[in-house]
Design a protein that fits this description.
Elements lengths: L6 H14 L2 E6 L1 H4 E2 L2 E2 L1 H16 L3 E6 L2 H9 L8 H24 L5 E6 L1 H5 L1 H16 L3 E6 L13 H11 L4 E6 L20 E2 L4 H5 L11 H16 L3 E6 L5 H6 L6 E3 L8 H9 L5 E4 L1 H10 L8 E5 L7 E5 L5 E6 L4 H7 L7 H5 L13 E3 L1
Parallel strand pairs: 1-4, 1-7, 4-6, 5-6, 7-9, 8-10, 11-13
Antiparallel strand pairs: 2-3, 9-10, 11-12, 13-14, 14-15
Helix pairs in contact: 3-5, 4-5, 8-10
């Protein structure tokens, strides 16, 4: 299959990349960290052992951790199977301190200092705050401290949420120019079919690129508490990291020594190779961190100009404007069938673009009274998706 390569060649390639990894983000989810009784302290201890091993091997390490809500539920003795949003946020407020306290205990036993960093999507959407967070991470690395990152569940609302910690892990990986994202979960990796009912299903060791075939493999799970959406988010996180030139790994987080085995070259989990052509940091931020505040529907000529000729978006190629947005806001460009083809930052607001859509650049000033730019989106602020 085009998306994967022979096991032997894949293991050689993954080992070549692993030997070059100097900065790594490890994401571990609630399915691994918690049980019905609260935090799984055996897993926490194993995780601290593994990450300390990576740190002492000369690598810079960040941990992206779930578990605050689960820890809070245990501490508050909340037995209801479902909680409202405000109840989850309150449980996270109680549980976050317990979670960090547990991490401090297990890492302190190994002589490793840790720091807590709580983020919302809004923190990464503003370029100045994005860069401030990046500088903080690098300072912590200089001090030999391992950052532990979680979403700030207590203050996050729908507009500020990452959606899942896989996305957060991918964004942090790209934020600090890490070489690798490791997603530790409760499954062995990606399978060619569902191993519960397909005897021919096999573990995919190495994936070259994330295409539609790979994304559909998200449902090939057996005996996992992880839903299809959960595995899909991990695959999309790997796609985000690959676009910036990093590699990713999905593997079993409850197995003792899993990271030692991975870096020793054992055929564990599923490894994602990086794209050969990588997006520069700012364009990756536009494409994968910013959320669109509106949409521009383009005609066939404009779609071709953007995707095959590397052109800027001119008003003449726009057929419809959707949503309300201002100058400099992020938007997505759609083709006639509604498929997203590009992301970019606009030079005019939605009202102005509605007035100049389909108009030649020479007539912009006569329509809206001024002209700051010929382009609605300049190619320097445009990313093809």
């Amino acid at each position: 299959m085009a998306f994967q390569i022979a096991k032997e060649k894949g293991l050689v390639l993954r080992q070549e990349y692993l030997e070059m990894v100097r900065r790594v983000v490890v994401k571990v989810g609630s399915a691994v960290l918690t049980t019905s009784k609260g935090l799984n302290f055996t897993v926490l201890d194993n995780l601290a052992e593994e990450l300390t091993f990576l740190s002492k091997s000369g690598r810079e390490v960040i941990l992206v951790s779930s578990g605050a809500v689960a820890a809070g539920r245990k501490k508050l003795e909340l037995t209801s199977p479902s909680l409202t949003l405000r109840e989850k946020q309150a449980a996270a407020a109680v549980g976050q301190s317990s979670l960090m306290g547990s991490y401090e205990d297990v890492f302190e036993q190994r002589g490793q200092k840790v720091a807590q960093v709580l983020l919302t999507h809004d923190d990464l959407s503003h370029r100045d705050r994005y860069l401030n967070i990046r500088n903080t991470m690098f300072t912590l690395f200089e001090w030999g401290i391992l950052p532990i990152i979680n979403e700030n569940d207590t203050v996050s609302v729908k507009e500020l949420r990452f959606g899942d910690n896989d996305t957060l892990g991918a964004m942090v990986t790209n934020l600090i120019d890490a070489d690798m994202l490791i997603c530790l979960t409760d499954v062995d990796g990606l399978y060619t079919g569902n191993p519960c009912n397909d005897p021919a299903a096999s573990l995919v060791n190495t994936i070259v690129n994330v295409d539609d075939t790979v994304e559909k493999m998200a449902g090939n799970l057996c005996g996992s508490s992880l839903g299809t959406g959960g595995m899909r988010s991990k695959i999309l996180a790997a796609k985000m990291v690959s676009a910036r030139g990093g590699c990713s790994f999905i593997g079993p987080g409850r197995e003792p020594g899993i990271l030692r085995r991975l870096f020793a070259g054992e055929p564990v989990g599923t490894f994602f190779l990086p794209n050969q052509e990588k997006l520069q940091n700012r364009k990756h931020w536009i494409a994968y961190t910013l959320r669109p505040k509106g949409f521009l529907v383009l005609d066939n000529g404009a779609c071709q100009a953007l995707t095959t000729k590397g052109k800027s978006l001119l008003p003449s190629g726009i057929t419809e404007v959707r949503g309300r947005f201002g100058v400099g806001d992020p938007v997505h460009c759609l083709d006639g069938d509604g498929r997203v083809i590009a992301a970019g930052l606009v030079n005019y607001d939605s009202v102005e673009i509605t007035r100049i859509q389909g108009v030649h650049t020479s007539k912009i000033e006569s329509v809206i009274g001024y002209k700051d730019s010929d382009e609605v989106i300049h190619r320097d602020n445009l990313v093809i998706l």
